[in-house]
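Comment thread on ticket #2218

A.B. wrote:
> Attaching the input chain for the structure job we discussed in standup.
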Amino acid sequence: MAGGVFLCGPEGELLSPGISRTLHLAVLAVAAVGLVVALRRPAAGGWVLAVAAIALGTLASVEYTPTAAFMATAMFLLPAFALLAADQPDRGEAATWAVAAACLVLLGGGWIAADRVHRTVFGPFHPPSLTPALPTVSVRWMWSGGVTSSTFQVVARLRRPGATATLLVGRRPDLTDAVAGTTVRADDDGIARLAAAGLDADTRYHYGIEVDGRLDDPRRGTVRTFPDGPASFTIAVASCATTGSNGRVFDAIREARPLLYVQTGDLFYANVGGNQRRRFLSAYDATLTAPAQAALYRAVPIAYVWDDHDYGTNDSGRNARSRPAAMDTYRRLVPHGPLALPGTEAPIAQAYTIGRIRLLLTDTRSARDPASAADGPAKSMLGDPQRRWLIDEAARAARAGLLPVWVNPNPWIGPATAGADGWAGYATERRRIADAFAARGVGALVMLSGDAHMVAADDGTNSGYRTGGGGGFPVLQAAALDELGTVRGGPYSAGARGGAGQWGLMRVTDDGGGTIRVRLEGRDWNGRRILGVDATLPVRVPAR
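C.D. wrote:
> Ran it. Output below, let me know if you need it in another format.
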């Protein structure tokens, strides 16, 4: 496994929750044995307790800081020292000092082990970016999204709540030709949602934010509006970044100059377990102020839909206690297009037309039934309204001569497996969607996915789950930005590679004829191609 780690859970963590709980209980049992032994043989019991202390501190470092792990070690090691010292009165002062020295060595070893384990789990897994941080004048962070051929949105957090913000948009980098977009007053958290309209299609614009009449000079962003009609372009896709990650991979994505960055979930690993809006806000702050990520979001607009760790806790679904806070914070902080389903509690599904591509983003968390539920007609990852929307949108796109590209955060390919978090655990709904695509005339489709900490690609050989077989389509799995690597699902015709510092690129080549060429690539933090597939997909050409 990546980084020499040998105990990994399905999300790539060093220890899965089940393994971690079992090992903690085992260490506590060893400590209890040491205390029992100490009743008759203090020295032997003390050494058993000392070993248990080191093991407990190392395990604690998987979930807590080295300082907290050190405290857990000391809590057990100090009684161990007392037992060992009590056994030394007849052996002289030298023996007591030797025991004390041994305990200090163990305590120091526990600190070093805890620090190394914590760095392995929570530290970067590829080289850090050297992108400098910008000074904060009046804007803490900003990012763009919700792009169309004539509009885009910017969401910013200002230093001063209640300040007045105006979006300035022009074609020149220095904004000397800028015109004003919307003007709004920031809310109590300093959040301002801004928009620009009446723009030309397929054109690069520069923008800045004027706060209380003064331009925040250090921060300038760029957006290229979407083409209206046949066009060739690239879209970057990735997922799974440690909260506040600042790795070289974000530079590689920015340097590829994609038209759009599709983030398929786990934008951060906050693992919010309750209805805690402040924790979500803190996670967005850490993400959007990390220098490499901030530079990417200034340079490339985003289309983002969450997965589990940026929506709630691991494998969370519609019953997550974090759901209200996640819903509210997404709608306030994320620049996005019109959400497809009505209501503030509806899934965050959305769609974009880019040339002759129809990009369909689905929310696979907020309406999902628990993975542990028995598979069957009622079990759903999307919920009935969102599933109907997906099928209808894909069918309308196909009829209109557009190629549907489904942004589905979770792995699609894999044999039906009870309790699996990906589509393998929702095999009945997977087949139902595949059958509906076939019945509604969706003959060509591309899927972009994340979640699993790997890059993988399939040319359609293994992705067909229609009743009776067939119906496959090209699939790209793109992760992990900065998390431990895993390989899940499959098989994939182009193979799979687990690891960090990884992302994906979709190249679209469209000359306006009856086909669109698509290249799906998995790349590393240097921008090098790891694997990929090519496909030429038919689209309907409307009669003139």
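A.B. wrote:
> Thanks. Noting for the ticket: The chain has three domains: 2-122, 139-222, 230-239+249-262+333-538.
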